[in-house]
Recover the amino acids of this structure.
């Protein structure tokens, strides 16, 4: 069964939490990315996308603020061994554009919608039995609700 590391891009732009918004904008533009994981002490602590950086357009003085003040801290990320079927479900259920891929909590790559579509273009078989995966997902969601 294919896993996240099979299709992830290993060309990864990661920003430190203390990177300024101005520096983050420059890095995203220079590398042609729309978002980047944010690290602190080598661990994933957030993600910052173009959308969070737009406020600089309206208030240029924000350029000197750290990305940690605007980053999304509830990041959906997957382990490098995550089955692609589960990764695809995360995309569909959460309407996300990319997901960081982790090894022991450290980003080693990213899977984007385009990576999944590229995989789909070359694959004639479904990633999973949709009904079996849905049942597994529903069981996990119920377990999480019981814990909360």
């Amino acid at each position: 069964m294919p896993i996240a590391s099979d299709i992830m891009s290993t060309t990864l732009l990661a920003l430190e939490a203390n990177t300024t918004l101005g520096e983050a904008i420059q890095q995203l533009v220079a590398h042609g990315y729309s978002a980047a994981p944010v690290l602190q002490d080598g661990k994933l602590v957030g993600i910052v996308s173009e959308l969070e950086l737009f406020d600089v357009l309206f208030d240029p003085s924000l350029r000197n603020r750290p990305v940690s003040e605007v980053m999304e801290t509830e990041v959906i990320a997957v382990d490098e061994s995550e089955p692609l079927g589960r990764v695809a479900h995360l995309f569909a259920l959460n309407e996300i554009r990319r997901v960081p891929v982790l090894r022991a909590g450290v980003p080693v790559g990213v899977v984007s919608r385009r990576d999944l579509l590229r995989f789909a273009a070359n694959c004639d078989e479904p990633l999973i039995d949709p009904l079996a995966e849905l049942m597994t997902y529903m069981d996990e969601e119920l377990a999480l609700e019981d814990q909360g």
Observations:
- The radius of gyration is 17 Å.
- The chain has one domain: 4-147.
- The domain at 4-147 is CATH 3.10.580.10 (CBS-domain).
